[in-house]
Amino acid sequence: MAETSRLSQTAAASRGISPVTLLRIAIILAVLAAWEFLAHSGWLYRDVVPSLLSIGRAMSTLLTDRNYYFNLGVTAAEIGVALAIGGSAGLVVGLILGANRFLSRAFEPYLYYLGPTPKIIFFPVMIMWFGVGPESKVALGTLSCFFPVALNVAAGMRQIDKVLIRVGHSFRASTWQMVQKIYLPAMRHPIINGIRLGFGFALIGTLLAETKLSNKGIGFLIIQTYSIFDMPAMYAMLIVLFVLAIAANALIGKLGGLDSIKRN
Amino acid sequence: MTTADTSIVTSGRDYSAPPLVGFGTFVAFLLAIEAVIRIGWLNRFIVPPPTDIIASFGRLFTEEHILYRFFFTAGECFIAGVMVTIVGIAVGVVMQRYSLLQRACETWVAAFASAPLVLTYPLFMVIFGRNAWTIIMMGFLSALPPVILKTIEGISGTRKVLVNVGRSFKLTATQQFWKILFPAALPTIFVGIRLGLIFALINVVGTEFLINFGGLGQLINDLAERYDLAGTYAAICFVILVSVLFFMGLEKAERWLRPVA
């Protein structure tokens, strides 16, 4: 039955644009028209809602500016290092907590409740410890991404099929072999999910830290456009940043095969 | 409770041992930090001794008016929470009601949830100015996607038999919604509201810190700028405590709402 409906949908799609796509196009056009109307209405302060043309112009300037790519590289490097350190630490802690029920009951509540606290408030402490350079941004990104990775890995570890673990033990596998051959392959999806969440938090932590105190990076560029009131450039930067963040998030999920999980 | 948990309870093991070990480790860590600072291995102008941090809590109440600031932040969270509950549920209901709209926009809402929305705070500072509305709007925006998505999920997941009972009583669409769909979806909707409120609190305190305005977030920024290290650490501890109590309260409320299996 489901196969039949899928076939009929494919046939409908092949005949022309589907109603969903049409509605999406209509919504996008309506939003753009409303935006342009608002930009020329004079209801808001000038440039708070700049015209689409000026945003487009700012975006083309941005995408051809070498300085932008330098700052993008700085931010990407900070996020990459934060993800590597925080993700590895989260993986190790998650494996330990997931494997040992006693340690999990002793320490996991602390991770569970500290996880959703606002990490940006630790930024003054990070500046004290690591200085005002990129190190403090990396530290905040690391702290932000550690918790989701650790909690996801610990939860994933507990969900491993007990049969697989027994098979490992019956082959007298060492702890390292158990981690390499049983735990990590069986926990691919929770780990990738944790890294995906961790990436999002590392991105936010690093960029917020850059907006607060820095002299390079995308966060610095955004706050600079605010201070000189260059609104079209600010909109252009935010749009590019959102597209990059959403694309990177989807890419991590795709590489980890999250889209291949069967959902009932 | 899972079978594994039940077996532990029935095996008669001491249940209080792991939390005690956890708490003991935490206290031992603080004592070790205190000792390391007093010996001089750690610079007290970078990490203040835990005793100094504990001692400065009183000062936060008398000199920094932390309770007033707490209520200021709580008020911002409350307004953002009310706004997100009204708007989020309404949008979710409309999207669920019109399946074409849901199919067209649900992925957008999910993508919206994974975007770093808090980075738009300079934009809101331009629109609203450096005031509480910028902070409230940041809380509201970040909390919106989970409420919308969970409202759709909750209403879509209403058991067919309940909907059929409503039909057999010839309920109107409005009666069907208020008497069947909404009460059945409420536990799932509350999961969305809980997630939304957590995001709202994180973003409200974060934006206060970033724009140096408002309650607890601004206090941390102020103390850090005055280089009052013990006070900064104490204020951070206070925010963590408030956040933890807030999450615990929300979890309790969610358990209360969840139907008995």
Structure commentary:
The complex is a heterodimer of chains A (264) and B (261). Chain A is an all-alpha fold. Chain A contains twelve helices and no strands. Chain A folds into two domains: 17-49; 60-260, MetI-like (MetI-like fold). Chain A starts with a helix and ends in a 9-residue tail after the last helix. Chain B has two domains: 13-47; 59-257, MetI-like fold. Chain B has helices spanning 3-10, 17-39, 50-62, 66-97, 99-114, 121-128, 132-156, 160-168, 173-211, 216-225, 229-257. The interface between A and B is large, with 52 and 51 residues.
Topology of this protein?
The complex is a heterodimer of chains A (264) and B (261).
Chain A: H1 2-15, H2 19-41, H3 52-63, H4 66-99, H5 101-114, H6 123-130, H7 134-158, H8 162-170, H9 175-186, H10 188-212, H11 218-227, H12 231-255
Helix pairs in contact in A: 3-12, 4-5, 4-7, 4-10, 5-7, 6-7, 7-10, 8-9, 10-11, 10-12, 11-12
Chain B: H1 3-10, H2 17-39, H3 50-62, H4 66-97, H5 99-114, H6 121-128, H7 132-156, H8 160-168, H9 173-211, H10 216-225, H11 229-257
Helix pairs in contact in B: 3-11, 4-5, 4-7, 4-9, 5-7, 6-7, 7-9, 8-9, 9-10, 9-11, 10-11
